[in-house]
Amino acid sequence: MPTPEPLHVAFVWHMHQPYYRSARTGAFEMPWARMHALKDYLDMVDILADYPDLHQTFNLVPSLVEQLEDYASGDFTDTYWEHTLKPAADLDPGERAFIVERMCERADHPRARSYPRYLELAHKREAHASRGRQACADAFTVPELRDLQIWFNLAWFDPRALESGALHELVSQGRDFREQDKFILAETQAAILARTLPAYRDAAARGQAELSTSPYFHPILPLLANSDSARIAAPGTLLPSRRFAHPEDAAEHVSNAVAKHQLVFGELPRGMWCSEQAVGEDVIPLLLDAGLAWTISDETVLALSLSGVIASDSPGQTSRGAERTASVRLDPEDLYRAYRLEREDKELAIVFRDHTLSDLVGFAYQSWNSRDAAADFLRRLGELRNTGQPELVTIALDGENAWEYYPRDGRDFLEYLYEGLSTDPSFRCVTVSEHLRQSPPARSLGWLHTGSWIGGDLRTWSGDHGHQAAWDLLHDARDVAAPRRRFSGDPKVEAAWRHILVAEGSDWFWWFGDHHHTDLDHVWDLDFRTRLQTVYQLLGEPIPVELFLPILEHLPSEQPAPPQGPLAPEIDGLISHPDEWRLAGYLASVPASTMQPAETAAIAEVRFGWNRGGLCLLVVPSPSTSLLGLEIEIRFARSGEGNEPVASLLLEEQGQVAVSCTRGALLAGAAVAAWKEVLEASLPIRLSALATDGAVGLVVHIGRGGLTEHVFHSASLGSLG
Fold first, then answer.
1. Is 705 helix (H, G, I), strand (E, B) or coil?
2. Helix then strand then coil, % of the chain, to nearest 5
3. Which end of the chain has fewer surrounding CB within 10 Å, N or C?
4. Mean pLDDT rounded to a whole number for the chain
5. Which DSSP symbol is given to 469?
């Protein structure tokens, strides 16, 4: 009998991080691209050198490649790295708080649990967290802060890098680090960052790796082409207020990705992993026009494509694709093969990942013994090999995030797995293109379902109220930028358009959903809005008030917060520059009464701060609320006593404000106020009189017709000018 052909096994590792550069400064506001380079990106391709017969595909998202290039150049500003390098004794209170809050893992995280000193510091932070951000930071001594600076970075290095050399000496020392120890981190980090992208080029050059790409800033292509496509899989899903239908943007992400890939790696990519494996009929022409040979998605998308099942949700209801198609079972001969997508006179191949095997690696095996996990995976592959004649088993998942909770960052698991695969002749690990060359797809797929790897739908990025608000804000900004670009070569216009492309990325919309929340939600929210604010600023257009309001309802702006620095707003009733109120504090809203008038004014936020001794106040209405006729009382709360008005404002026709002062001793001159889209006011306060008066907080009453509808209060007055 002839020897059976070995089963082709294609691992496709997806390397992606959001675009972390600040819209305003260009600094990396999050360090995760750098950190994953230290721990994962280089290690994942280096390990293959020990198993030369194993071939794999690595998908490198261009926006990640761009960030890795910037880091490798050494010419970068990274907020977390800057906080690392600053001498611990010189940290100001805000920097101390940043390090304790942002640069200390939770005590239950493996990176903290692995090192006694790091765990000790994590427990200390938890013990003091209830005292507030600054008080918690103040509990840490200078040596403890320095140890945190070191451990935050040191614990991110790949475990093998920590087992020898200078890094191992730091691990062994464990505590009481010196400032010069930071240079060891810097030198090792620079060497790893410099090697990362060349290592992928080398693996591709020796034929062991295929490098594929994704749309440049990782957008969800079907939603860019037509936001209504979200209803193909979920008819009841909430859509943006206006249909977003710009396939030309999607095409630009694709073409820019192909160009970047060729520039960095020296050859055109053959394959494209569409962001989040989100594909559909609207996506196929984009890939064909770019000259790509293959793409990839999830088996749920294949099941829906073969069955022709269209979502049957009732209006207002949705169900996940995997649940909806539970009865649509894929035969092994359907799943374990490539397909042709023939459209007009062109064709493209598509492969579909085994959802179970991919998720076992991505989510389940991390809690197993590494040897047992590898053995289980090999057993499952063997069972597939013995069921008929499967042509290709595709395992596709994140190449960096999967290893976070594995022992030794997944190194042991991968070594056991790769050893088993390389010594068993019944398996052959191939790149996707190698398989397609040897076994061109014989079956054609006449219709490709629109969906992603998550449930076979697009609801992770469109369907919740946060999604809707974000898509609408993006659409409005795009409408301003796109016409300018058609008729101008102005660098500012091109810079504004790049911000639009960044804002089209999938990661923003992932976090705007109802089911993905972290302690940094407010950072994502602010960064997205800041990026769109920058579009208007570059184009010389007024910034819409909505871009100063949080998209997510639970953000810290609903909590009182002191000003972060002096203000210098122009009192004109417009937010004419994004920095005008950036450092302002927040007033928290409390109900004025359990019974409200039928037409209560909706106030989005009230902010305050100081300018050369004067109080600055900003009142932002919700979009549906008119400011005309509002009555605003400004009060200072006194310790142990009540409060009484210092000034009253009545908003009149044509942006006029009638100002009356009831406690003239606190005022050093005439108040200035104006309203158009917002109310802005400046009250010259006698700071000495304010201190003598025992003022401890600011209170603002807002209402109409003599009725108070809202009360806003501060936690403190902050620094008085």
1. coil
2. 45, 20, 35
3. N
4. 89
5. H
Instruction: Tell the residue number behind the tokens 């899903």, with chain if given.
Output: 237
Counting residues of the chain whose pLDDT is more than 90, the rounded percentage is 71
Mean predicted confidence (pLDDT) in 697-719: 75
pLDDT at 531 over 80: yes
Question: Quick check: 160 and 39 in contact, CB under 8 A?
Answer: no
Residues 465-490 have pLDDT tens digits of: 999 999 999 999 999 999 998 877 89
Integer Cα distance of 10 and 381 in angstroms: 12
Distance CA 452, CA 321 (A): 9
**670 or 429, greater pLDDT:** 429
Distance from C-alpha of 562 to C-alpha of 221, rounded to nearest angstrom: 41
What is the four-CA torsion angle of 276, 280, 286, 289, rounded to 10 degrees?
Answer: 120
Query: Cβ distance 214 to 13 under 8 Å?
Result: no
Backbone angles phi, psi at 78, to 5 degrees: -125, 120
**How far apart are alpha carbons 327 and 359 in whole angstroms?**
20
DSSP per residue over 191-253, as a string?
Answer: HHHHHHHHHHHHHHHTTSEEEEB--TT-B-HHHHH-GGGHHHH-TT----SS----HHHHHHH
d(CA 582, CA 616): 13
User: Which residue type, as a one-letter code, is found at position 619?
Assistant: V
Distance (Å, whole) CA 241 – CA 472: 6
3.40.50.720, 1.20.840.10, 3.40.30.10, 3.20.110.10: CATH of 1-73+185-463: 3.20.110.10
pLDDT at 362 over 50: yes
Q: Which two tokens stand for residue 68?
A: 């890795």
61/558: higher pLDDT: 61
Give the Cα separation of 184 and 188 in Å (integer). 6
Residue with tokens 């920590």: 162
What are the boundaries of each domain within the chain?
A: 1-73+185-463, 88-178, 559-721
Element (H, E) at 28: none
* Cβ contacts of 639-648, under 8 Å, gap ≥ 24: 639/694, 639/696, 641/694, 643/699, 645/701, 646/683, 647/671, 647/683
622 phi-psi bin (left φ>0, alpha ψ -120 to 50, beta other): beta
Residue 360 CA neighbour count, 13 Å, CB half: 18
Mode of pairing for the β-strands spanning 585-591 and 707-713? antiparallel
Name the residue among 51, 432, 499 with its Cα closest to residue 213.
432
Q: What angle do CA 129, 30, 496 make, to 5 degrees?
A: 135
Strand (E) or helix (H) holding 591: strand 585-591
Measured distance CA(97)–CA(280) in Å, rounded: 46
Gyration radius of the chain over CA positions = 29
Q: 427 has which bridge partners? A: 7
DSSP secondary structure string for all residues of 372-386:
HHHHHHHHHHHHHHT
Per-residue pLDDT at 595: 36
Q: What is the pLDDT of residues 206-242, one digit of tens each?
A: 999 999 999 999 999 999 999 999 999 999 899 999 9
Residue whose C-alpha is closest to residue 451's, from 289, 291, 281: 281
Q: Are 124 and 141 in contact (CB under 8 A)?
A: no
Q: Are 495 and 453 in contact (CB under 8 A)?
A: no
Tell the burial category of 122 from Cβ atoms under 10 Å away from its Cβ (0-12, 13-18, 19+): buried
Tell me which amino acid residue 276 is.
E
Give CA–CA dist 580/569, Å, rounded.
Answer: 5
Q: Collapsing DSSP states into helix, strand and coil, what is residue 19? A: coil
Amino acid at 506: S
Q: Quote the longest CA-to-CA distance of the chain.
A: 104
Its pTM stands at 0.80
